[in-house]
Write a structure and sequence with these properties.
about 200 residues, mainly alpha, globular
Length: about 200
């Protein structure tokens, strides 16, 4: 397998560096609950550093830790996308969960560490860990959408963007499987750093 070129690595690291400054604005309600409709729902995960980092990290870890392409690449991404939708529906229904923001920050810490270590977890454990965190990401969105029209279209856009971010993470992770070990670790450390920043803001 070809090693990533220097420009590719530089672009990857630049993207991660660009995401970190967004941490200060990545929290529930940052857009005042105004995102609704398919297009804005699709764009929302792309503009919130916490959600973007988590979704890419899920795909990145899946690719780095996979022992075989099928079905190891799919367990965690499918669990995240599915439970994100469940969480969003819970939020729309008014279900109250404690510590939503700290749990979102904790998800970045855990997912970042999984990327750094490239640890392989059994499918049941991987789906459970990722799925629990995805519920809190989904609930945060659901709370924001509770008073808005067009929630179904917004959720469809979010799920679509989530899947694409997972695919992007998988593609990046697969390209880094044979690269120098520090490259995935830098990516994972960036996610951990973002999670630590958000956790400090949430507590």
């Amino acid at each position: 397998m070809r090693h990533p070129t220097v420009p590719t690595v530089a672009k990857t690291l630049a993207l991660l560096a660009a995401v970190l400054p967004l941490a200060a604005s990545a929290h529930t309600g940052v857009d005042g609950g105004m995102h609704h409709g398919f297009t804005t729902g699709f764009l929302h995960p792309l503009t919130g550093a916490d959600h973007l980092a988590a979704m890419v990290a899920v795909g990145l870890w899946s690719a780095l830790a996979a022992r075989r392409a099928w079905p190891d690449l799919l367990w965690a991404p499918l669990a995240f996308a599915g439970m994100l939708l469940v969480g969003a529906l819970m939020g729309l229904a008014g279900v109250q969960l404690p510590a939503v923001e700290p749990m979102i920050a904790a998800s970045l810490l855990v997912l970042g560490l999984l990327v750094v270590t490239r640890v392989h977890l059994p499918a049941v454990v991987a789906t459970a860990v990722v799925g629990v965190f995805a519920v809190f990401h989904g609930v945060a969105h659901g709370y924001e959408l509770a008073s808005e029209g067009g929630a179904a279209l917004t959720l469809a856009g979010m799920v679509g963007a989530t899947v694409l971010l997972h695919v992007a993470g998988i593609a990046l992770g697969w390209s880094l499987r044979r690269a120098n070990a520090w490259l995935p670790r830098v990516a994972g450390a960036a996610v951990v750093g973002l999670g630590a920043t958000l956790l400090a803001q949430a507590i």
